Amino acid sequence: MRQIHDMAGIRVVVYLQKDRERVRTLVGEKFVVDQAESVDKGEELEAYELGYRGINLVCRLPEASTALSEWCEFRSMTFEVQIHTTLENAWSETEHGLLYKPGVSLPPNMERRIYLLAGLLEIADGQLSDLIREHAEHRSSVKASLDEGNLCVPITSDALAEYVGRKFPLSVKAGLELGPKSFSAGDEAFEWLDAVGLGTIAQLHEVLEPIQELDEQLAAVASSGTSLRADHIATLACLLMDPKTVHERAYAAMPVMGNDLSIGLRANILDVLAAREPKLQQAVSERLVRGTDHPAAFVVIHYTIAPEHHST
Question: What global pTM score does this model have?
Answer without folding.
Answer: 0.65
